[in-house]
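dumping this here before i forget
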Amino acid sequence: MMKTVHSYWAYIALAVLIFAVVNAVIGLVQKKEFTHKDFRLGLFTLITAHIQLLIGLGWYFMSPWYKSMKANGVDATNRLLAIEHPIMMILAITLITIGWSKHKKQVKSESKFKTFTIFYGIALLFVLSRIPWSNWLS
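structure:
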């Protein structure tokens, strides 16, 4: 059950993150005014990412392969799920959180969009680099 929730919520979190990055890039390139809609999108991205983190941590420590890993150690087959995926996702959510905090200190719209583009964009790259695609798409 927890794995299913983690997988389905990941679609939502990824879609919102992609939308936020695209919105920030468009706002930056077109020199748009930073509106309440942009603020809410950044906040919603932050919230969905943190919810995904909590669900993921719950699944991580309750999963059968975690118990097996504790008993037998990490090998090449479970390294992605045991080490790489969690670390990169935590780093991505950290970048989203930093980007959210930094954007609030900015005054100009261009600076706000630039902050979201950089921090949320790097977070998106981290997420895409370590999604266990073989598990997720099957």
